[in-house]
Amino acid sequence: MVRTLPAFALSLSATLVAAPLAAADAPPLELAPNSQWNVDFAPDKCQLMRTFGEGENQHFLRFQQYSPGRWAGLTVAGPGFKKFRSLAATELRFFESQTPHKTKPFTGTVEGFGTGVIYSGMTVDRGTGEGWDDEDMPDSTTVPLLDTALGKQVEFVELRQGGRTVRLKTGPLNAAFEVLNQCTLDLLRDWGLDADRHLTAQSGPVWTNQDVIVRRIQSDYPSDAAREGEQAILRMRVIVSEQGKVESCTLIDATQTKELESPACRLMKSATFEPARDASGAAFKSYFATSITYRLG
């Protein structure tokens, strides 16, 4: 059964400090689930959420996608993460025999749970993407979807930073990934796109003047937000016509800010694309999706 829950407010931390060295490792904090998975099929995103622990020790986990793809955003929050620091070296893993992924996530605040650790995008087998070759990067424009075979291997979501380890005992995630895959394909249909055509497509839209537009976006950090020390993760989606033209652009706040208004969609009006190609090689209407991270320092 699908349940839609109120969105949790999430704001990024503006304090960028290294995690202090711990004198000794704290005992690992292992938390069992206290709820079923809850699904939020929102108009522009798909969320899968669950809580862990009891009483004042409750923790929160969320997978989030804004379009089909092999990667998902990940947010965990709760008192176990109180001493975690933004952009500090953090190990992430999903099963006992896995070599931990080396990551540097943001921290922030999740309403009702306290300190949160935030990954813009991750996969079970490759972490957050550091060290990927371009051809191996998660494809944000066409399927494949989340890998349910990888999801079946998952035993937990474990984060370790500064001698502190927190493990949320999720169990296998194959069924959860199947739900997210179905939800993101439904998003395509909601946008007026042919989901079945995307499943067999040869390629998605190719952004031909990306370097120029990205430099413009990077150079235009909103001044009010910089003064306030605000950082943000935004999700951008553009609908690309059969001719490779940008028909529309949508920005969605993945984190909560007060002053940060990105110029990305205004600048994307001058973006150009090679159109998506279906199984027969014919151009067809599709989309391009990516994340924009504003980070001080």
What does this 3D model show about the protein?
With 297 residues, the chain is an alpha+beta fold. It has two domains: 10-190, no CATH class; 195-294, TolA/TonB C-terminal domain. The protein has six helices and 19 strands. It has helices at 148-153, 174-190, 195-199, 210-218, 223-228, 264-267; strands spanning 10-12, 29-31, 38-41, 46-52, 59-65, 72-77, 90-93, 101-103, 106-110, 114-122, 157-161, 164-168, 206-207, 232-240, 246-253, 273-274, 276-277, 283-284, 286-294. The strands form five sheets. Strands 1-9-10-6-5-4-3 form a seven-stranded antiparallel beta sheet, with helices on one face. A five-stranded mixed beta sheet has the order 2-12-11-7-8, with no helix packed on it. A hairpin with a 6-residue loop joins strand 5 and strand 6. The longest helix is centred in the middle third of the chain and has 17 residues, at 174-190.
